[in-house]
Amino acid sequence: MDTTYEKDKFLEEEGKEETINNKDDLLEGLISKPVEGGNWVPGASLDWATDFGRRSPEYDKLCREDETSFYHSQIQNATIVRTKEQARIVMEKLMNANPGLFHACDTEVMDIKLKEVGPVGNGYVTCLSVYSGPNFDYGLGAPIGSTLWIDNLDDAHGILQEFKPWMEDERFKKIWHNYGFDRHVMWNEGIDCRGFGGDTMHMARLQDTSRMKNGGGGYSLEALTSELLNMRKRPMKEIFGVARIKKDGSPGSLVDVPPIEVLQRDPEFRKNFIAYSCYDAVGTWELHQRLVALLKKMEWISKDTNLFDYYWENMRYFAEVLTDMERRGIRVDAKDYLASVEVQARKDRKEHLKKFRQWAAVIIGPDGLAINPASATQLATFLFGGSTNLKTKEPTEDVRVFKVAREEVPEDAIKALKEKSMEKSKFIDVTVRSIGMDAIKHTAGGAPSVTADVLRELAGDPFEDPPKYGLAYNYFGGNERGHEACVALFSLCAIGSIDTMIANFLTSLQFLADHDSRVHCSLNLNTETGRLSSRRPNLQNQPALEKDKYKIRQAFQASPGNNLIVADYGQLELRLLASMTRCKSMIDAFDAGGDFHSRTAMDMFDHVKQAVDDGDVLLEWDYSNGDPPKPLLKDKFASERRKAKTLNFSIAYGKTAHGLSQDWGVSPTEAQEMLEKWYEARPEVRDWQANTKAYARKFGLTRTLMGRYRQLPDAMGPNQRFIGAAERASINTPIQGGAADVAMLAMNKINRSEKLKRLGWILMLQIHDEVILEGPEETAIEAFDEVIDCMESPWAKGLSKTAVPLLVDGSWQHKNWYEAK
């Protein structure tokens, strides 16, 4: 994998749970010896040296004598390939290698800004390192067991292409750390990596999904080799860092890492850089050996099977599915649709900002016209100033003066603040006074919180019919004043939502779209349950369809002549819960069909059941027979159904009566009564949860539907708060993790389907329980039937047919994602 300093930041996102250590740090135990087997030919100029201070780290000083091992000899005498003749000799060795060998590979990449873009279509591979184990001879005279280092920079440009036949040969198994990145940058060079033998990042996640929480350093190569192999590394900055030069010409305290091409070209760094890049291949190979051994010790579905079997049969192919999807991307209408929607969103934001500030000015005077809605400090002072800080026990300030840059203050505010704006200062003093409301929630530091959920609680929705007012309504005495307060605070909420929409989707999608108008998001297996996450952009975080004011999904479109298939599991997690617990009531409800949450409402509320029994409302209705003759339960008793729906999912997530009471705005006693009512009809669920928690307390772990492990050591600890969280995770993981298992097998089956390939359909995205495919309009119906079959029958070794059938709904006839929903 590339070792640019930027790449470390990329791995912080691709391989982390919350934070992650840098991947590209040098082995502390490396020793400094000449690199044999190739001569460096100067390439581009070293103009960068005028911008950086010069510092050549002494390689020998990086060594720790007590850590010398055979790793050093593998790195110190690399087999370097810079010519076609050298490549021919090495290729003969590789193409005649034992197919049972694993070859660890790693790239170094330049010209890519990973904070801004992904690896699909971006970056240039400067070199490739390969390690084939301690007994392999590449044939150029270096010691057996050395590492292969293939130069692809400057006059060696194109040498990588000599290895294309081997890289694309399925017979030879290559292993990687963060395969997705390397596969994409190699594809950029015209090489489609085949013979995938494993991704040590995914293997490490399978072995322990909670490594950071359980005392480990995360899933970077640095952290894993340190933890599992005792191969410790120093930070990259310490090895290659150069001090920034201050204005007086002396070196400063800030240190930068030169660009990757400089490290590879400059004689001052080149020797160490080759050893550095070779280490990643060696570390990946050794880590793979260790993880295979660890996974083989973990039982899977029987004593004769283990988690390495699970990885080899399922997750290994799934990694290829994910990289296939990333490479394909999905088409977005960036130039026309998204650009026009962004204009409208900014216009709406301006109107909402005007409404909020004008109301604030009525309350606290002209300074209200300058309140910054993005400043949590200003909002907290304005809304809750004077409230007690829960940590300090002191009242917060109810009047504060903020220095605001003149260009950030709107013109109408400057005119209104005449006495403050006469000066030619760059800043204007804005005095924010509190309206004196009581704080609803508090930050970790004890101060009043002004998060989106708090603002929504204050505002409510004054535009519903009838209006649903928030707490601000009564605080301002109700009537017109209360209504105006809720409207203004509703606008404040809208500003936050619009800002999020603009940043996460409207601008980012336009920026990320490539020359074919396709967006290639990064799909990652970095959640503890095994659910996918996505970045650049985070498509998992799209607003609910009914709240998608700007119809973002409409921008995701099929190419001309194609349609989209969008297929979604219905109530997947609840169906899995019913199957795992063998709950008769739930199984009967699903077998009966119709609205599951309405049936739950009947069980929970006697008056709802009575209304159905008396024929006053209908449980469901087939609209092909026209309009219903009586009101539907979901309409007549919408509030009760919402509570039933919340409770159904809350049970799956292990939510307590206290949490439910906050969701519903009722007392904990009332919430507990509703919980008991739910469990009365579903005793099997209560028993299963009790047994699952007991298992976690005894063994410190839980397992998913397919037998993956999640370590929960806190369940065995002394801290009751941590025990409670671990117990909730123990019952949530089998359900959410089970849904992830089902989705993975379904996606594997879809991607493998010869029928879909013949019909011209490709899998492009998976969001939650939904998949999106693209293909020719004329084969859409036949392809849709195949997709439904793959999803409803994903069964494979380790996943038996569930007691409740999996239900999939979807569409095939639409041109964009929004219409398909």
Automatic annotation (TrEMBL):
It holds the Pfam family DNA_pol_A. InterPro entries: 3'-5'_exonuclease_dom (IPR002562), DNA-dir_DNA_pol_A_palm_dom (IPR001098), DNA/RNA_pol_sf (IPR043502), DNA_polymerase_A (IPR002298), RNaseH-like_sf (IPR012337), RNaseH_sf (IPR036397). PANTHER family: DNA POLYMERASE I, DNA POLYMERASE NU. It comes from Fragilariopsis cylindrus CCMP1102. Residues 551-779 form the DNA-directed DNA polymerase family A palm domain. SUPFAM superfamilies: DNA/RNA polymerases, Ribonuclease H-like. This is DNA/RNA polymerase. The lineage of its organism: Eukaryota, Sar, Stramenopiles, Ochrophyta, Bacillariophyta. GO terms for biological process: DNA-templated DNA replication; double-strand break repair. Signal peptide: none annotated. It comes from the Eukaryota. GO terms for molecular function: 3'-5' exonuclease activity; DNA binding; DNA-directed DNA polymerase activity. Keywords: DNA replication.
